[in-house]
Amino acid sequence: MPKTVSHINKNTYNSLLKENVFFGKWEYLIVFIGTIYSIIFLVGRGNPVISYVGVTLFVLISVLLKPKNLVYFIVFLLPNQRFFTLYDNDISLLNIVIIFALFKILFNRIKITQTQFIFVLVLLIYSIVSTYKIDNFSNVFIAVKASFLIILLLLVFKNNVNNASWYFNLVLLFALGSMLTGIIGLFTADNFVLGLYNRFSGGDYNNANIFGSMLSFSIANLFVIHLRSKQKNINTLALIFVLVLFGFMTQSRSFVLAVFFGIVYLTFFSLIINKKINLSILLVLLIGFGVGTFIYLYPNSNISKLFYFALDRILNPKSGDITASRFYIWTVYSEKLFSDIGSLFFGVGSSNPHFILGLSQVAHNGLIELIVSWGIIGSTLFIFFFINIWRWLNRSFNIRKTKKWLWRFVGYLPLLILIIVRITGHSIVDIAFIVQLFISYQAILVCRYE
What is the pTM of this model? Predict the structure, then answer.
């Protein structure tokens, strides 16, 4: 009989590493319910009745599940969150789950600290005061939503930070959610054909770059699990392989950059610290060599074209600029901001800020978009908040630290990948980034224990 998380000492990480661990009943239930919800929204796309039935279902699940399992539910649906919105609206239904889970925790008399309360209060006050400058309430809505989510995750993570199965289940749920997004996308992407020069976005309602960022983050965390586990699981490698295929189908430059960085990063520290290449890293290098050889020998196959088109967007960009004019866009945004001191310090709001600045496209840089929307003052508050989240989680972690430095460097990989894809991507105060930031912090802690 396969071991489940319920059979393992929850407070001993090494007990998890020595066992073949599979989901418990609640994790299986989350996957089942999330899949059913996805099918309902897939079948009822564009149907207002199905949309409001979906709202009822989200309320129902929010009432029935405990906060920890609701976080699992959010993580599983996160890669496909654009799918779960109100009819003819872009408001994510995951907000319903966040609100219910937070109130459940607070009603159970689990309180936040005075420092955490002050952080939230200052952020909310700033967002309200800034409305006099930006003349819209978009930042107030974002501040409330971000504060709710951060407090929810902070309370749940602090209660489970020393739980051996917590990080592993989060990663597997996120990865399975990413795979489900790809599978659904195959049924809903009308314009994608494998082997042709077109991009796969995980469905017509999704975005290729955003989906690619979800995949690269999933792969980084799965690799942490694989390297950190005593017994290597072929299922983890198989899941990584499937996500890599979906990633190359997106033809996302940031995805390719993230994967390349991850391989170089792990190989470098493996050689420097261990004086040899870890067998799992060597396997990845051999697979890469094998794929390259296959592409060379069979250039006309659909699999070869899958990798070739993704790499060709980097090696032979249409405009001759591998960044797709990103540096030029960033320069224009910087000039616009420094030409108006008020906008530089207070921002212009989160509602279509590029239109307010008179620009035709978004910045494609999460940090710049944060400064444009919130100004230097608001951006500093958020970054300071994010840094203190790490401090609060780290204080709750009470397992002896390891002296094996390679593991510590492995633990930083998800956070570095997250930074890479967001520097070339979009907002760093949305639901996806905040959840991924917490998972990244947990990865660091997981790789610091004895």
Answer: 0.87
